[in-house]
Write a structure and sequence with these properties.
The chain has twelve helices and 16 strands. By secondary structure, it is of the alpha/beta class.
């Protein structure tokens, strides 16, 4: 007996691991390294395309609660992420190369997981199948999914550039976290005065963008959390100052004052030799990125190891197609996992893979599905994918708004989040080792 898992991204690796943990053989199909998309560069599994941040670390936050629930349910990716963590203030960020290498090693060394290095172009003829091919599903298989599911939706994700630490002009930058949270070395801050910012803004909104050929470029759906910085800038002169370049909670030690605008750089690896331009996802042409971002004083001589890119993301109309265990409502032995289900974010994708993997294993064993309470973050995300009433279904990341309210009204925001976390983690204990 075996279960097929299609795709070795975050959701696929987590699903394969959960199935194998339960003593079931896995056939894990992955087209890398034989074939890569434009957004991939590594041969390893679980390659982090966009940011290296897994969002907030505090359990008293939606993102932190999600990760703690996954830890308690035996998540492989959380084990690897905790071991590969790099400084990131109040967030959990990882050395992306160490992280993907560790996950790849764990998967390849598991005796019950057979990795099959080929592109999948159709659903397997036999066995329960978990589809976790992700937002960059190959065109041929995407067509089969469309046939099976009666259509799919598309939007775009954008990745931020990465620069070398040695090329950052530290005479024009300073290290600090907002409000001194997470240590002074968590971020490199690139301040700008009013004149510098306004000149940068003018160049950014007029810069030449890279063409996009595989969608209707006149009307793309771009997820707000991955909105290209040039599109944000086009909404108004001060949009960036209230978004990714907000200066609040920071003081430039050279002036003693808060800067007019600040670009934060977050470390990409444990050696702190690479830094990500936080919030600067972009679709500008590569020479334009170097020119425009070079107007930020600290980046005037920046060396780019990766320019920002924009790529297709594909997701299903999940409320019409999926149950809360991530299986198809049509009664077939097909599960979906990852961003294709309408969850948004690295750990949200991995979390859906965890639940889909567990339930695929339970189905093979003839057991009833494991449906987590919607008072848990994992359960709430699964419930959103399966039961959203929105006429225009869109991806959703972890947030406390999708969890049923507390019985007790708590006015303090931090105390209320802590109460949500306590309730969730008490409930999740009943599902350990299932």
């Amino acid at each position: 007996m075996f279960i097929n898992v299609l795709g070795a991204g975050l959701a696929g690796c987590e699903a394969a691991w959960q199935i194998a943990r339960r003593g079931i053989n896995v056939k894990l199909y992955e087209m890398k390294p034989n074939k890569k998309t434009a957004a991939h560069s590594s041969d390893n599994f679980c390659e982090l395309i966009c940011s290296n941040s897994l969002k907030a670390a505090r359990v008293e936050s939606a993102a932190g609660l999600l990760k703690e629930e996954m830890r308690r349910l035996g998540s492989l990716l959380m084990q690897c992420a905790d071991k590969c963590a790099v400084p990131a203030g109040g967030a959990l960020a990882v050395d992306r190369n160490d992280f993907s290498s560790m996950v790849t090693m764990c998967i390849k060394e598991h005796p019950l997981i057979e990795v099959i290095g080929e592109e999948v172009t159709d659903f397997p003829d036999e066995g329960i199948t978990v589809v976790a091919t992700g937002p960059l599903t190959s065109d041929k298989f995407a067509e089969k999914i469309t046939e099976k599911c009666g259509g799919s939706l598309h939007f775009f994700d954008a990745a931020a550039p990465i620069v070398t630490a040695a090329s950052i002009d530290m005479d024009s930058a300073f290290t600090a976290s907002r409000y001194d949270k997470g240590g002074d070395d968590a971020y490199i801050n690139c301040p700008m005065n009013k004149d510098e910012y306004e000149a940068f803004h003018a160049a950014l909104v007029s810069a030449e963008r890279a063409p996009r050929h595989d969608v209707d470029v006149m009307n793309p759906k771009v997820y707000e959390g991955c909105m290209p910085v040039e599109i944000l800038a086009g909404r108004g002169l001060d949009t960036l100052r209230f978004g990714p370049m907000k200066p609040v909670g920071l003081r430039d030690p050279r002036t003693g004052h808060r800067p007019w605008a600040v670009l934060q750089l977050r470390t990409e690896n444990s050696e702190k030799s690479l830094y990500n331009l936080v919030g600067f996802q972009t679709n500008l042409k590569f020479p334009e990125q170097k020119r425009v971002f070079g107007m930020i004083p600290a980046l005037k001589n920046a060396e780019y190891v990766r320019y920002g890119v924009m790529h297709r993301n594909t997701f299903l109309d999940s409320p019409k197609l999926l149950r809360a265990d991530y299986s198809m409502k049509d009664g077939s032995d097909i599960f979906f996992a990852g961003q294709m289900t309408g969850v948004e974010g690295y750990m949200e994708s991995a979390g859906s893979g965890l639940i889909a993997g567990i339930n695929a294993a339970r189905r093979l064993k003839g057991e009833s599905p494991m449906i987590l309470p919607q008072e848990t973050m994992l359960g709430a995300l699964a419930g959103y994918a399966a039961e959203s009433q929105s006429a225009d279904f869109q991806p959703m990341g972890a947030n406390l708004g999708i969890i049923p309210p507390l019985e007790e009204h708590i006015r303090d925001k931090r105390e209320r989040a802590a109460a949500y976390a306590r309730r969730s983690l008490e409930l999740i204990e009943a599902y350990r080792d299932k």
